[in-house]
Each structure stands twice: as C-alpha cells, then as structure tokens.
CP-type G domain-containing protein
Amino acid sequence: MRSMATTILGRRIGTVLKEELRSKGEWCDSFMAAAFRAIAERIPLANLVVEVRDARIPLSSECEILRNYPLPQKQIIALNKMDLAGASNVKAWVEYFSERNCISCGVNAHNKEDIRQLLSLIQCQVRELKRDDQCDNNYTATVMLIGIPNVGKSAITNALHQVGRINAAEKGKLKHATVSPEPRDTKDIRSFKIGSHPNIYVLDTPAILSPKVPNAAVLSKLILTGAVEDCLVRRKEVAQYFLAIHNSSDQYKKWAKLYMKDNGRSFLNGTTEQLTSSKLLMKYKSQTPTDHTQDCIVQDVRRILFETISSLEGDIKCEDEMLALIDRQFNALQEAFHISVECEEDAHDKVAGKLLNLFRTGRIGHYILDHFPGKIQ
C-alpha cells in the first residue's frame, strides 16, 4: 500500500512540473502537434493498432489519442519493459485488461521469445481480419504502433522486423528504426515489414502526449519512468519520490540475505568468502569507483537500502519520518557511489542521477507505480 508521505511527494513533484510546463509551453510543441495530426489521419487506415505502454505504469502511459479517434477493428495493448515491472505483476495487469475485453500482453523488447509471442499474437489478429476480407488475394495488413515517449516503440519495431523477416526466410539488408534512451527521438512515420503470407507491415510512429497536461499524480510517474525529461524538475526531488515508493514497498526484504557480516566473514547469496586485507585490496583495485553500474556497487546500494529501512524505528507513513529516512539514504549512497562531499547539493544531485539510472534499468528491483482502479494508493 502506498504511504501518505509517498503520495504527497509524488503530487508535489507533479504540481511543480505542471506549473513549469504551463509557464514554458513545452508540453505539446509544434512538432508533437504535427505528429499528433499525422497519426490521427492514419489511424482509420490501419488494420490493427498496437498501443505500447510502459509495464510499470499500465494506466498512466495510456496514449489518449486512441480515446478520441475511430479505431480499426483490432487493438492490442503491449506492456513493454516487463523485465522492469516483474512477470507476476504484468500477468495481473493482462488479466485486468482481459476482463475489460482488451487484448494485451507483456513484452520485453530485448527478449526474442517475447517478440515471437507478440508477433504471433499480431499474426493471429491479422488472420481473423483476412478471413473477414472477401478480397483475399495478396492480402496486406498494416499495423500501427502508437505510444507516449520512451515506452520502447522503436525497439519493438526493430525486434518485430528482424524476427518477422527471419521467420519468413527473407534476405536483404535490414533497415532499422532509430532507438534512443531520450524521449521523442522518432521523428517520422516509417514502415517495416514483419511478415509474409499475409504480408504485414508495421508503422513506427513518433511518440505523442495528450494535448492537455495530465494531473500531478500521472506527471510524477511519467517523469520518474523517463517519459518526460528530467530537466524540468530537480533530479533530487525525483529520486526522493522513487525512494519513498521503494521504502513503502516490500522490495527491500528480498535483500535481507544479500549481505550479512559476522566475525569478518562476508556472506553473499548463501556462500561464504573469507576476505583478507590483501584480497580486499585486489578487489577494490579491479573496480572503477565512478561506474555505478558495477555489480559490487549495485550490491552496496541494495544493502544500504535494506539496512536503512529495516533499522527505522519511526513511522514510515509519516512525511517527516519518511523525509528523514530519505536524507539518511542519500548520505549513505553518496559514499557507496564514491561521490565527493565538497558540495552537498551537487553531491546529492549526482547521487540522484545514479540512483534513477539504476531504477530505470531495473538494477534495484521491480516496481509497478500504477494501482488497479478502486484500490487504495
């Protein structure tokens, strides 16, 4: 259950972001407005729409354009980044959408088996359309991929294109959609073949947001997952929001046995390793202190988060207690990330950047930020 302190921090970030967007007019710029119109014109021409959402925010990452324009007969919701959300969590959301007569599936764009299953689902829906089409000869279907920024549309497009052509035994140089960790990188609508007999083409479209700025709660989730750029809100505040979510969850309990120290012995994943001073020296010489993605540093981050939460004596539901805990965690993580203490504000900003990177790449657990409608957050 989401604590009140977490909800307050999320709304605070969302409110600040909303005010910044309104004052600077950077929410839906002229490029995105043009992309919005181009996609709206092509939706009625598509045989099938695949809406790509972020599996961590299955509701908040909805592409609102699909509410307001006539859709083709078939639609699939692809919950991408399921490796960051957890298979069991995504399965529950697939069941939720199924109960509402929506076809959906979980997918990791970098997992070929997931892509094959998504391609099979697309082909199944296209075959149903083909049976309904009396002009059956040389049937060609167009599949349009739609989504908000940074949900992985282009990565899915490339994977479908590669797997589909290999399955169809087609040769020739593959063309690729541009994939970038930065939001709004796709600029044009491009077509890629993903199947033969019948021929299926997928359209990779630019990412679009709702013309209207969403509420503060949704905005906070969009910036935390990277759908909205960090530059409009201080990274430390976004990282504080993540830590509040983490501290309110049971994720840290999974790390209880990750590190246990007893009489100079270090226990890692159930195996014992005697660390002498010479071994420690060799171990640290092989590390790059500035690289926060190293396993040893990630393990330290997990240990720190476990220790700080499990040793808390106050009420984590209280905003002051939560903020005090987060402050302790920032100071401890500063040491784990080997960040200089010369300027605390700059140091905490660096801690925030590294921590958010680990969250967004799934190195510190699985998280679902949305809750089923009707449940207490």
